[in-house]
Amino acid sequence: MDRTAQLTAHALSYAPPDALPVRAARVLDANWTGASTVPSRGLYPHQWSWDSAFIAIGLRHLSPLRAQTELETLLAAQWTDGRVPHIVFNPSVPLDAYFPGPDFWRSTTAGRAAGAPRTVQTSGIVQPPVHALAAWLVHRADPGLSHARGFLTRVYPRLAAWHRYLLRRRDLGGGGLVSVVHPWEQGMDNSPCWDAPLARIDPAPARSFRRADLDHGAPEDRPTDLDYGRYVRLAVEYRDARYSDGQGEFAVEDPSFNALLIASEHALAHIAAELGAGSAARHARAERLTAALVERLWSAESGMFLCRDVSGGELIPERGVSGLIPLLVPMLPGELVSALVRTLTGPHFGLGGATRLVPSYDLLGEAFDPHRYWRGPAWFNTSWLVERGLRLHGERAPADALGAALLELAEASGFAEYVDPFTGEACGATGFGWTAALALDLHQRLLDRPG
């Protein structure tokens, strides 16, 4: 145990046994495998990319060493083309524990031309690039330990290669933004924002796969078999094309994915400066991405950012939480920030009125469902991102209210995967890794805030 972890454990020993930091720490300990943290022991028994980034942000308050290890383990599975895979498979987990598993993705063979690692099996798609932001926050938690271990020196080239892959290989629309080639890449798998572009995809036959997710959740809360068949079809075609980008039928510019890239590009600039390298080019790149985000994805009529279907070129007229996450972008124009806050607190998302956490989809949308995966429930990671964005732009009152609700509902729900946005009822898995980690992070930030 590193020195910081010893001090944290000592401090926690004096906290009430039911205090939020103690309970969150227990979840993270229970999900720790020795080198990384699973999102949940049942439904998600491997290492997930953006989960690990969020988990590291919380772990930094318990053990900066473990937080660094979390990110290092993930980045050790990076492909030589720069992509960070969305799943790193644990070989000790049975093949049928999760679908699609390593025998589906076949990374060591199908991914050979793209530089998949030979010693570990991974998926072939990616997830949102939160990693540089996480690495910078983890470094700041204990700079002495970070310098002693050469943490930033080791992860910086990998993070730079990750961003380079996205910027060079995934600008499929030609407008300067990154496209996702599968709904699983954006992280909000079942959002109605994907319905129109997914409708073009012929689903894989239901008999060709077995859904392990239905063993752990109510079918009425999960994606339909039809949608899941389309997910499988897209993944098969990407795999069979040897994970070559730009050839599939699905390509979407997503505001959340690009906003997280912008925030991480700014973080990568801070890391470069810390290492004595130039940071101006990275800040300038983040500014160009911000301009492209506003130009291509802002909808004044909707009062928020929307997804763009690259194949058809049009904005997708569905309001998802993804369109609010650009609040994280530091140089977002003030009038756009004001419009986003109005949309967030207005009838479409109801924050502070009908809802206490940010619903994943428009309350007035035809596809809204308060329990179905990403079609209405509130998720803790997206609410954490929105809270951080509100605070960044000086929107203190809604940020305080959202932060208080996040902490209360995370604890009351048993650190659930997601909750009903109206009632706070726990949905999905409990003891969920990023819920515990981000509640712990927010709790600590509130303690550390002066005044």
TrEMBL record:
InterPro entries: 6-hairpin_glycosidase_sf (IPR008928), 6hp_glycosidase-like_sf (IPR012341), Glycoside_hydrolase_63 (IPR004888), MGH1-like_GH (IPR054491). Pfam families: MGH1-like_GH. It comes from Streptomyces griseofuscus. One of its GO terms (molecular function) is Glc3Man9GlcNAc2 oligosaccharide glucosidase activity. Signal peptide: none annotated. Keywords: Glycosidase, Hydrolase. Belongs to the glycosyl hydrolase 63 family. It comes from the Bacteria. This is Mannosylglycerate hydrolase MGH1-like glycoside hydrolase domain-containing protein. Gene3D superfamilies: 1.50.10.10. Residues 44-435 form the Mannosylglycerate hydrolase MGH1-like glycoside hydrolase domain. One of its GO terms (biological process) is protein N-linked glycosylation.
